[in-house]
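Structure, all two chains, one model.
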Amino acid sequence: MQKRLKLAPAFSRRFLFTFLLLLGSSSLTLYAQTKYTISGYIREQGSGELLIGVSTYLPGTSTGTASNTYGFYSLTLPAADSLTLAFSYVGYKPEIRRISLRQNLVLNINLEANASLQEVEIKASRQEKVTESVQMSNIEIPVAQIKNIPMLLGEKDVLKVLQLMPGVQKGSEGNSGVYVRGGGPDQNLIILDDATVYNASHLFGFFSLFNGDALKSVELTKGGFPARYGGRLSSVIELNMKEGNKEKVHGEGGVGLLSSRLVLEGPLKKGVSSFLISGRRTYADLLAMPFMPKDVKAGYYFYDLNTKFNYDFGRKNKLYVSGYFGQDRFYVKEKYDDGQTNTGIDWGNATGTLRWNHLFNNQLFSNASFIFSNYQFNIYSADKDKENKGFTLDYLSGIRDIGVKYDLDYLPNPQHSIRAGILSTYHRFKPSALVVQDTDIDQYRSEVEHIDVLETGVYAEDTYKPFSRMRLNGGMRLSYFAAEKKNYFRPEPRLAASYNLSEDLALKASYASMNQYVHLLSNTGIGLPTDLWVPSTSRIAPQKSRQVALGLAKDLPRQNLTLTVEGYYKKSDDIIGYKEGASFLLIDDPESVETVSWENNITTGQAWSYGAEMLLQRKFGKLSGWLGYTLSWTQLQFDSLNFGKKYYARYDRRHDISVVGIYTPNPRITLSGTWVYGTGNAVTLPQSTYDAPINQPSSAAGGGYFQNSSGVAHYGGKNAFRMAAYHRFDIGIQFHKKKSWGERTWEISLYNAYSRKNPFYYYLAEEYNPDTRKSEGKVKQISLFPILPSFSYSFKF
Amino acid sequence: MTFLFRSFRHHYKKLTAVFRLAVWLCLFAALPACEKDISSSVTIDTEPQLVVSAFISPQDSVLQVKVSQSRPVIGIYPTGEEAEITNATVKLSQGGRTITFTYSATPGRWIYEADPTSLPILPGQTYTLVVTTPDGHQVTAACTVPTVEGVTISDLKLSARKATMSDGHEYDEHTFSYKWQDAPGVENFYQTLTEKESKDPQTNNLVRYQLYNNDDLFTDERKDGQTFAASERYQVFPGQPNPKPYNLHVCLAVTDRAYYLYHQSIKKQQETNGNPFAEPVLIYSNVTGGIGIFSAYNQIKATLKVE
């Protein structure tokens, strides 16, 4: 024994020491390479509402992540004895936690709302920086700001607020149709709690569907679309509703000139399950009734209802159920001596979703959604005599969706944020359903056309941070559409990149290829609910677009401002428009009541839109708001319209300026003002009339001769006429008062404060001038709204 | 007759219901609307344009060109006399030869005429029309006369069936059908016309009247080289004299593209006149320097004698 030890004394000791050192250091490295995951849910203190997009980061580094749509975040970091983690979100007090990371950690956070919007603590924390997000062409408006912006007749409208953003235009006066980067209103994917909404407005676009009191977040993406979105060419407007306060019963409501609304939310089981109900109804019909002539009952009303319910089964599973139901009804009932006529238009949406969150482990989050959406509009006309016999016409059109959606969020480390999923929707289109009954000539005709199609998209995307200055989002979406007789398969590559030139300045670029399989046939004029939703078929190819965008984003943290300047170019192909002379009512001949296939009523073409946008925004503070400017061109070319020549789109708006300011000097008063300016719409207006004779060939000897037709209108080109520019100033003031039961607010606002006669419609008239004894042609302009004051009362408890 | 009246009444009733609705909609939506006369501030060109219309065919016994002025939508409307153009220079040329038209003697007809024997209209040839007015306007247009090679009319048939009106009375419904073969490999357009020619029992003269036909324009797009079929119907009521023999004529005009587009656009614009929901229809024009149409056609005929 002794002899062996003596054999290598010095050598073995040195060897042993080196070996132990190596072992020690390698175990240290092993120890340093061990990673652990911090994950959890981020909620609002008090209500328990999950917060979307909360920045979770290590201060002083660029390592971080953001909470997803369901408030879940996950950060995988190397083990450390002491780690500082910060959570910050617009409008909330930031949270800082010091933790020891030696195992996987579940850390749920409650953020306190910064109701007083003080600027004191803001400088100390770090706000969400546009320069740190790879997403470009994206607009987020805090719901609280939406409630402070003065609106037409006091009706707070999310879509109208989006129209105040650069790159987003409105159609005509009061219309809430959204035109994003030269795309029409059907090219926006409007999602409410994962369900697609087809007609997003009440009263022909004057009021929107979405009750601002019940909304949690609104996000608009105009370009650089990540692979998880598809199905529309121009924009994605994602709206998430509140889930319902999990601690206490709360309510919010308001009484306005034209409509009233109420939101009730509360827990069903404290901390575990909650509900939310919100409703709205207008009473315009009751107000107009005394002005109706005798024997005529005409009116209009709309109502909508949202219901939500959710249940928290624990960390791993959560269930959400939401439903929306809304209807618009417009009716005219006239009584005659020998009978009565009943005419009207009804339209409405119904949506329902069932969502199930499942957490596989602290790095893999999943959500499964079952979606239902239905839109229908109906025109009816009944002409009955005293014995209830006569003529009835019932025209229906609609679309019904049943869909399944499955998404996975995988966050293996702070450099990669991977998402993948599938969305499959079964659409049933009913472009025209006609029922005609005439008891006089004993005619009954019923024609209902159904088209069933399947639309599927599979995607995978990764947000990759190779090094601290750079972020890349690359993805691929494979879209597949099974029409009745033809299948379409289209891959859609997406790429977005962001590079920090300096700490607060980033250069961003993106490319997105989009396809749209579902189309809206919209009338040239006003955005009526008569617009038809139709699918791609073997004759009508899907619409497609490719967009590139390049921009700069700058954060000015000391002034609490963000500035983005962006240029874009979008080329769209196979876009759809109505043929000349086409009309929405697909009835060719009332006697034989033959429906004209809508496929014969439409034609395809291409579009070019390009321009530049600038946005200077402050999301919170005593004085908040934004200043936006857009310079853009949108041109279309259809072989069978305008004789194949390029022409400007109706909504082509060269300059678009919006200035929005919200000033809160103290918690009791909020002052707000909006000024908008836009170049006029391009419309088709006759320039002259002339006699256009028809040739009358003859079989008699002598050949043909002229046959006169009545004067025809000469248009001089489609959309060749520019309406006058549109500008308007709105101002509002709110008085808040805290009461024992909650808070009440009186709001007074002025729409179109300097009463500008903005053009809504032009028409031609012939007037006889008694002085010159001649007829004169005149162009008349119709304006809709002069200065309109409104008062409303709202409350919160 | 009663049948026609009843169906018209229903057409009218339904239309008014929908348009009544449209009126209410506009009223409702435009409750606080304001109207303003902006004729002085808009930039619409108020200069009248020269309108030239002409159709030529080898079958013409007289060549006619109609010259008029357009009436701008803004401004004082000119009277008939003020708008008439009597001193325009109208010239038609082909292959180096030019003829000048003269203003027609009947005032108000706005027509310039010429004798086709001085410049025969031949199939396959291209003709150029130039109209100049003393105040400096000039309109130019050209067209090529289509050939009828490869186009043949066939299968002229007359069939009759008994039909009843809603009040129980019987009448005869005659259907005159015919076919024609399209010339393959060439772009063709057609206009059909059918006439019934019979002896008027009172005056003993041959009277022709056209059978009503709404769909008279055809194109061979996607139907090149195929057979076209068309038919027209007419009614013979009990007690109505229908002396035999009589002739049924088919006159098929083989036209150029401009002819088809022009007539289609006029038809569409007239159909949708007054419908606020319809898209505006642009009238086709193929002249430069003004508005109008200059096109050519070539006719082939066939007759069915009914004993």
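Chain B has three helices and 19 strands.
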